[in-house]
Amino acid sequence: MATAEEGKTPTNYQYQPQGPSSKDSSSAYLMSIVSTLSSSANYDQREKEKTRIEKAFRESDKRLGELVTENYQDVTKILQAFNGMTKSINESREKIRKIKEDLNSCKTLLHFKRDELRKLWKDGVEHKAVLSMLEQVEQMKEVQDKMNTYMANKHYLHATDTIVQAVSMLEGPLNGIDALREVRGDLINIKEKMHETLIEELSRQIYERSLPSSSLQPGSLMRWSRKDATVWGWSDGVDSPRRVPKQDSVESSNNKAYTEVKEDLNSNPEENLTKFIAILTESLFVLRKLPDAVERIKLGMKGSLHKLINTATQQIAESSGQQLDSMENHVQPKYFNELLKLVFQHSRCVAQTHQTFLDHVLKLTPSPGIDNEKSGMPLQNHIMYDMKDVWSEIQARLQILLSQYLDVPNSMLSRQQVPSGFDQPTMDISQYFSKKKAGKAKKVSLFRFDASQHAISVTSARQQIQQQYEHDTLGLPDSWHIIKVCKPGAFNITAIYKPLRSFIREVEDIMQTTSGLQEFITDFVQNVFLGQVHSKVSGSIDAATRVEEEEDGHKCFDALRNVIDEKRRRELGVPRPLLQSTVIVDSCIQELQDLMHHLPDYADQFLNMICNVLRDYREKCHSAYRDIVQHGSDEKRIISAMWAKDEDISRFLRSLPSWRSLQPRQGKELDRTICSEEEIRSLNSKESVILISNLSGDDALIPQQEIITDVTQMRTVANLHESLEWFADRLEQFAASLTSQNSLNPATDELPMELPPISDKTLQSLKQLVQDFKDLAEICLLLLHLEVRVHCFYYLLPVAKQSNYAGPIDDLDPDSNVLKLNKDLSGMEEMMTQSLQPKKFKYIFESLGFLVASILITSVQFLKKINENGIKKMCRNILAIQQNLTNITLARESDLDRARHFYELLYLNPDDLINSVAEKGPQFSLSEYKELIQLYHRSFAGNPVSLQDARMQRLHSVMEKGQDETLQ
Questions:
Q1: What is the pLDDT of residues 409-457, one digit of tens each?
Q2: Can you give the C-alpha Rg of the chain in angstroms?
Q3: Is the CB of residue 507 less than 8 Å from the CB of residue 391?
Q4: What is the pTM of this model?
Q5: What does 493-559 look like in DSSP terms, one character per residue?
Q6: Closest residue by Cα to residue 348 from 383, 309, 384, 391
Q7: Burial (CB count <10 Å: 0-12, 13-18, 19+), residue 121
């Protein structure tokens, strides 16, 4: 609104003020109006201007009145405030004037009393000094009580400051007071001994208070509680001092600004360990005993670590609920593992506390160029230590601990040579079936000088050198007596290797150098442990696969005659008994596999041992197999072994559906492929033809030495098959779990693996050994399959070649060879039922009836004569075999009905036989019908040869006609 009113004022009389003062601006404006009115010559113009100015004034006055009306309350408040301020100022002026008058009066009065006042001031100063001294004397008398209170509450910084100040006063201002002479002596004595208490407390904080307060539970590790975290000044109990900062302590401390350490008398000083360490360090610094404390802590590190390990041992014994004295006699490596983990955890805490102490020490240590007298006693280089010294001492104590628990002194004396790497080219399995050449006879020494005086002295000197070497290189314990939580032994390394390796890597990351503990473990494993493992495994294998001498002088593989008991079989979950030697070898392999997982860094060495063990066992299994299938000193073998070795026969047998059904993968594929009875019969006939063509081609019989007559040996072969098949499957699973170095790719290199990659050469050797065991297991099964069939030939060929079938009427009993065959088959059936799985038992006896029928039908050519009684006898033979096979296979052997029907055709004369073939069709082959006609003519003499030829010609035409009709 003010802006609008000003706009109505004539612009000709507006004056722009030049200065900042509003008063000057108003005066200048007024002068401008007066000048304008004075310069106007016309009266009317002046009146006009005057009127306009008056109008503007009235409008401004009116506007001012409106503004006053609108802001009346504010104006009233301002006026009232102004009046109050004016009144206060006036009153203040009056008071100041009065005070000034009073001060002038006082000045005048004091001027007259100045000498008296000076005297009184001097007396007051003297009395004040006396009172202060009396107060100090009283305080000196109370210092000991305060000290006792502070020390009891562990407020060491207040105690230190109190004693230092008290001694300083007694040796300074209060030195001449005789009443304080005894007090001064007591306090000086307390000050001189106080650092001992502080150093002991500091050592307790480092080696005892810094450890977790949680109790050990049986079988579990100690965990950090919230209270432990509070002690360390951490916010959460799950955080633990796993790592010490990698940077050098001197550099890190110099970079940290020193902060004053304050002690709260109203709190427990031990609640925060870091702060309490700082208080102790500051207290020692105030006492000027910090170098002594550092040296004492450094020199007492060994004994404190010994005590720490002994305390951890006692905790393990208490958590296990056993007496510590009796634990040393039991093999309980799990307690050693828990002890070592506990010691590792305590070592980390101790190292962290040492780091905290050193940080505070280095904060208080004077830098170069600073006056040592002002900053305290300097630390010498030979007194000061760092974290590398701490970790080196911890590793030294752990090395002594490991040396005793791993029984290094005794293990070094019985060191075994570790075999070199497994390096064997791929071999053909057939070479193991050949006769081995006899080895050269070992030379026997006539005498030795082991008991001579010279040899005894040399041996003693070597033992002394060995003991000195062990003491120098392995750091064997000095006078430290360790009560053990388990029986010492080299195999304890398996329980602690992984946590020990992790701890060593942690230490190496901290120290940025190779750990001496790592060198000790590497030397122990390579020079001691691997040799003991090899010796133990070799001893177990030799005991399980030893060759013993029997009474007749024949060497046999004794372990192949022993099988596991029923309890052990149930534990393994196997359907049939296994050889004890195979189970023992597998147990040794499992131990080596466990060692590969326990000590993954040495997986290649253990795998080499596994390959060596498998190679030796493979050779002994092949040697045992040769002893069974080979007789005499020549190269003769039993027939079934030669056929199983023959590539053509073996390949044909493996191609049959019955064999393929035994294979896990091929069996599933075969289930989806439906084979008709005719196809199976055709395949069985091929097998029979091959066997018959090889065994019944001439008049010679099968010698007894070319078959296995001892059922025990067949049981051995069956057990060997089941054992090696089970063993090969387990080895194959193990080989599949390994990773070759050549099969790794960059994408999988970073993936965590339980076992490191194995060298490709060793892995290939393992797979080849697995295949060798598989091949031998399959050959054993083929041997049994063929051996049963060879037995049929052995007993049935004499039935036709040596027996009489043209005898009297009372000779109707089955042939003796048939009875022997039935007894032999029953014995093999009983043996194989116990030794083989049902599907393999079925494979061996399946289609055996077809083979027997084919043998009997083919044997008709070897019969010289036959009559009706002979036909009945042959039919009884067939019936006896059929009944026995039915009991074995639990299925009717219909193929033997065909053989019986074949011999019943002999009741017909040749003409009736040919007419029957013409009417009903051929049921047998042309050659088989011809053999029947020839046997008829041999049995009934007097028939001319021309008649036989005519009948043969007629039979041939009938068979051809039948084939033509079949084709049409």
A1: 777 666 555 555 444 444 444 444 444 444 444 444 444 545 555 455 5
A2: 57
A3: yes
A4: 0.70
A5: HHHHHHHHHHHHHHHHHHHTS--HHHHHHHHHIIIIIHHHHHHHHHHHHHHHT-EEE-TTS-EEEGG
A6: 391
A7: exposed
